[in-house]
């Protein structure tokens, strides 16, 4: 191989990573159109000018077999061969394909743009345990950590003293002194 060229095995590894992305039943041998479009987007094959998402979808439809919704690695290489001259204009097909392989190698599906948890003021206010009142206040300690079962049930005081008796626990001391 020439200097700067990329091995097909490295490209196939990236193909397998994108092929299984988002599909629990995928084996990594076949890639659907959504994952092919994701690969093209994440690896910056689609640039918005020379290669658009529409171009990617058209090339995918060309290389896949009729009545099938997935492509194999061989068909994937055929699709890249069609996209390479569009992406790198002014270069011959081999140079363009090698540069396209260079974009793909070592990449994995990214989760950029995935929906994040909303941190609204209302949510903060509703989950702040220091503002709880009544019986709900008893379910949490000073740090805001839940007490578990002790916070949900009334545990009876079996000390033998009346509740709120200030001298509880002093009987034994009085008896010993006498």
Write a brief structural summary.
By secondary structure, the protein is mostly helical. Helix content is 44%, strand content 2%.
- Give the helix/strand class: mainly alpha
- % residues in beta strands: under 5%
Q: Which parts are unreliable, with pLDDT below 50 for 5 consecutive residues or more?
A: none
**Helix share of residues?**
40-55%
Mean pLDDT: 83
Largest sheet: 2 strands, antiparallel
Number of strands: 2
- Based on Cα principal axes, name the global outline: rod-shaped
Strand order in the sheet with the most strands: 1-2
What is the chain-wise order of helices and strands?
A: HEHHEHHHHH
Radius of gyration: 33 Å
Helix count, DSSP H or I runs of 4 or more residues: 8
Q: What is the end-to-end distance? A: 102 Å
How would you sum up this structure, described in words?
This protein is an all-alpha fold. Helix content is 44%, strand content 2%. The chain is built from eight helices and two strands; from the N terminus they run αβααβααααα. It has helices at residues 8-20, 33-42, 53-63, 73-87, 93-104, 121-126, 149-152, 171-177; strands spanning 31-32, 70-71. A two-stranded antiparallel sheet has the order 1-2. The radius of gyration is 33 Å and the shape is rod-shaped. 17% of the residues are buried.
Defining traits:
44% helix; 2% strand; rod-shaped; two-stranded antiparallel sheet; single chain; 8 helices; mainly alpha; 178 residues
